[in-house]
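Please review the protein record below. Tell me whether the encoded fold seems credible here:
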Amino acid sequence: MILQEEQFENLYQLMEDSFPSDEYRPYQAQRALLSHPHYQIYVYERDHELAAFFATWEGPDFIFLEHFAVKASLRNGGLGAKLLQAFLKQQVKPIVIEIEPPEGELEKRRAGFYERNGFSLSQWGYVQPALAKGQSPVPVVLMSYPKPLQQQAYQSFKNWVFKHVYS
């Protein structure tokens, strides 16, 4: 289901609860994206509460899954994998995600989750620019679905994301 305007408060709260502050935009900037033609947020509700969401950008040849989060109380029970699989089946274009390099325990678990769900870890990445004043840049590596990312696709994705998402 597509995010409704009145769900934004709960969505932003889940974003704050799920991501380090350098990995999402300040409230007004995030809210302003709701009217962006390439940006879409899909939500999953359980018991009339926001339980999970996918925030995506549609590029010419791919979907950039910028944020995916499941409410903390519902994690580690298979819901994330179930929702991700349902999301992937609905997409026609390849999916690209950014993750922090899998060096620490949490980052390795995150990469493992995506690999178990069909994503391939690439050798490519970049430094995500600070999303707002006072925030820090974040080094990321890319993962892709359903096939491993090739260099030409990486270059095309990087050019697009820096022009349209991080401009």
